[in-house]
């Protein structure tokens, strides 16, 4: 189902006349062509000047990407600008990559298509491992039938995890919506993915070179950059670090990933070393440092789509909610589709007030715009979302919106047919739980 056809990443905002972003409305199609022409003339200039100073590596890679794509799309010239990226990409597509996708299905009709397009299709050799608790949104995972390689699909009924003494000593319930239990559930999800992956490896007799761990509720605005893979170093996004390390995405080789993903089983070690009062992010950092695993932070083009409400404007320890239309990279900040309420000088103001090592997110002039997330998602968010992602991805949102139990079961059958390991309640149950209002789960 040609997810790859007509990719329009860099230009997506500009191609939508219905885009909610005010500044674009006066520009006609013709004007856009002129602007684009101007843009890639500038890109070429930029490239020439930069290659002279041979400091390509210092440009943020998403800028390189954007420039490269604009040039290719318009057939001006083959972009030497992206040569290093292309080389790295071809190396990676010859390696073994596992993508661990964890968490509740929530708004998967919005996030799933972007994950398919910008991670799985981008690295067609990658095997997908899904680990997700059953809830009324689980039926949306049927969209994974559009993934090319599904190694393992697991949807389970969540049960309380007994809290051990060492867990209670090491972890704190502060700032976790569901206390220590919430943390344990999350750690269990992450480590569960590692367990699934290891059993698949044992069966097949190989080891993955790379593991990309990402969340079901992340919306990717651009492809995962091939320059995010470093042997011996765990890569995490900057910002949203809550005293430790941002744990909303992680990329690493097999050995570093084992340390990073063993979130439950390393707690006794942290206990022995005397750690207490850890939240998810500080525990994550302690895990890596105590195992002498080095890490680096690298901006990444995704955000966590959230239905939660937050005070606006955020102050000090408040959580900023970015507009999904932000240019980014948002590096895992919370986001929702909205008409931005805080841009320019307002953003600068808010960012100055946020605690740097807590909920602060990296930004530059114009890269992030904020929503007022004190209420529900605003009226008309669907149209806004479609305008941002374009018709190609929006049709998956519509597919889920129009889905009935029969279609859902059919899609799951197709998905199961291409999945090596399947562990989930019957299709009928997953589908009716979300789509049949008369259905009650009496298990
Ligand atoms: C990974 O760990 C194994 C076992 O500890 C070791 O033999 C191997 O050399 C390590 N691989 C890399 C790339 O560091
Ligand atoms: C980490 O390095 C320290 C100091 O070199 C060493 O004592 C410790 O055993 C190492 N820890 C692990 C888990 O390798
Ligand atoms: C930020 O961008 C706006 C509009 O592009 C510009 O007017 C303003 O001067 C910029 N501010 C800084 C600090 O660069």
From TrEMBL:
Residues 93-436 form the DUF7796 domain. Residues 1-22 are annotated as: Disordered. Keywords: Membrane, Transmembrane, Transmembrane helix. The chain crosses the membrane at residues 30-50. It holds the Pfam family DUF7796. PANTHER family: OS08G0360500 PROTEIN, RING_FYVE_PHD ZINC FINGER SUPERFAMILY PROTEIN. This is DUF7796 domain-containing protein.
């Amino acid at each position: 189902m040609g997810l790859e056809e007509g990719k329009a990443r860099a230009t997506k905002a500009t191609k939508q006349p219905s885009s909610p972003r005010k500044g674009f409305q006066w520009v006609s199609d013709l004007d856009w062509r002129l602007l684009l022409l101007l843009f890639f003339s500038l890109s070429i200039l930029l490239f020439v000047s930069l290659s002279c100073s041979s400091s390509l590596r210092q440009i943020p890679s998403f800028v390189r990407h954007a420039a490269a794509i604009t040039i290719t799309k318009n057939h001006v010239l083959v972009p030497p600008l992206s040569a290093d990226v292309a080389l790295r990409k071809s190396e990676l597509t010859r390696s073994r990559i596992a993508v661990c996708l964890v968490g509740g299905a929530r708004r998967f009709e919005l996030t799933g298509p972007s994950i398919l397009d910008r991670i799985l299709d981008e690295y067609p050799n990658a095997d997908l491992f899904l680990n997700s608790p059953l809830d009324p949104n689980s039926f949306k995972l049927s969209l994974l039938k559009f993934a090319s390689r599904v190694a393992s699909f697991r949807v389970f009924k969540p049960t309380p995890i007994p809290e051990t003494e060492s867990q209670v000593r090491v972890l704190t319930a502060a700032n976790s919506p569901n206390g220590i239990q919430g943390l344990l559930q999350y750690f269990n999800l992450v480590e569960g993915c590692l367990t699934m992956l290891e059993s698949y490896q044992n069966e097949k007799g190989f080891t993955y070179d790379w593991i990309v761990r990402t969340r079901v509720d992340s919306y990717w605005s651009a492809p995962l950059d091939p320059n995010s893979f470093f042997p011996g170093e765990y890569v995490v996004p900057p910002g949203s670090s809550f005293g430790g390390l941002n744990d909303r995405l992680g990329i690493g080789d097999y050995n570093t990933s084992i340390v990073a993903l063993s979130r439950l089983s390393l707690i006794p070690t942290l206990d022995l070393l005397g750690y207490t009062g850890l939240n998810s992010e500080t525990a994550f950092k302690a895990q890596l440092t105590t195992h002498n695993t080095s890490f680096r932070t690298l901006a990444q083009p995704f955000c966590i789509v959230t239905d939660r409400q937050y005070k606006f404007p955020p102050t000090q320890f408040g959580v900023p909610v970015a507009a999904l239309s932000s240019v980014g990279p948002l590096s895992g900040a919370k986001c929702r589709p909205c008409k931005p309420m805080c841009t320019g000088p307002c953003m600068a103001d808010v960012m100055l007030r946020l605690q740097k090592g807590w909920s602060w997110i990296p930004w530059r002039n114009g890269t992030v715009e904020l929503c007022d997330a004190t209420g529900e998602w605003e009226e008309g968010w669907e149209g806004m979302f479609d305008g941002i992602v374009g018709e190609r991805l929006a049709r998956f949102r519509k597919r889920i919106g129009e889905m009935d139990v029969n279609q859902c079961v059919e899609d799951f059958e197709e998905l199961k047919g291409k999945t090596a390991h399947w562990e989930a309640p019957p299709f009928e149950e997953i589908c009716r739980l979300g789509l049949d209002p008369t259905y009650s789960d009496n298990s």
